Amino acid sequence: MSAGDLVNWREHLFCTNTPTHGSGQPLGLSGRVASEKGATIRPIFNRAFFCLVLLTVYPSAMADVLIATNGEQFIGKVLEETSDSVTFLSETGGRFTVPRQRIRQLQRMTPVQNEATNRVFSSSASTNASWRPPGVGKDGFDWLKLKSDEWLKGHLDYVQEKKVQFDSDKLEDLSLELKDVREIYSAKPMFIRFHGREQLYGTVAVTSNLVTVVGPEQIQLPREQLTGITPGGKRELDLWSGKVNLGLNLQSGNTKQVTFNASGELARRTPATEFLLTYLGNFGKVDETQNANNHRINVSYDVRLNRDWFVRPIQMEYYRDQLANIAHRATVGVGFGYYLFDRDNLEWKVAAGPGYQYTRFETVVPGDESSSSTPAGMVQTFFKTDITRRLTFTETFTATLASQQAGLYTHHMVSSLEFEIKHFLDLDLSFVWDYLQNPQTEANGTVPVNSDLRLTLGLGVKF
Questions:
Q1: pTM score > 0.70 for this model?
Q2: Could you give the maximum distance between any two Cα atoms of the chain, in Å?
Q3: What is the predicted pLDDT for the residue at 33?
């Protein structure tokens, strides 16, 4: 829909060009002369209705548009202009400043009302949904079109787990939700994976409902069947991503307290596999007395078999908690998994399998074994949902069943709210619950408590 179409539609709604009766009053829809009251109310109603339709059907008509010399298009608001640069606020890229020489076109979408004709119109700079940067498919770069009608130019790192990792020419590294990306066009051949099909190789074009792969033959499949895209011939480093989260709390006065927590994630993703390494550590002191000192490292490797099922050939965990009387605890296992939900804004998967656990205790009562080796059974579930565009809730729950000496039943649960401040920066609030049903008694007769509960707040940096 163009600006001209909007103007014509508005004229029809407001009846600015309708024939009039001999009295000079406009004719109604039935051809009868409108009453004085109706002639007053109808234009007000039509104006309100038109504005509602304009904002609902064509929201980008109310925004400014910046088109860079490299073809990237941003939609948002011009905050400041000088003779040398323009400061722009984009929904995707946030606030940034562009030199004048790097701007091809700057379009403003401020509505203007003409009192003489009651005609509402926008400038000729309105965005066209069918517009495409001239460099798509020709300049050797990958291109993304977002739901906001913004166009980004750069290099596609991967599409995996409903995430799109993209290195934009202007905004640099971006991590986007697949549901927020309307179109993808690759410049070079890539590896593409669909549910229940062998991996394909070729140039790829993703639209709102179709994925087209052009290789030895052209194949078109529904977008909902897409599970991943990985560039072919890229560096190994491009397959990796990660996040580091740090939190620190200092208190002085009658009580001196120091609490420090850190977590990290390192992942390698391809269309059919996912390697994940995570770390969680906590350290705390109250009046020079240690009240927390634990570290947990998890490693998993998943191979997707089809849309719903995956196999986990290796899963490992290392845990150390001196206050829980655990000097070292290592658990190794295998498993199978199933996706209960796998949507753009909702993911829920479960995995289970057998394993082996070794535990060495800090101290034991004289006569007790200082270590334990036992078969184990493991169950894990991961849940993730987008509450809003910037707020995400995740929960990981891992339970292990082992021998009585090893603690019988243990679980580790992390529930987190992640608020995206910038595309690379999060504010994370996490609740952690570690439980050990049968803790080992220490040499002095002290029995550690069963549950360890923590609430942490920290900043996370994604890379």
A1: no
A2: 112
A3: 38
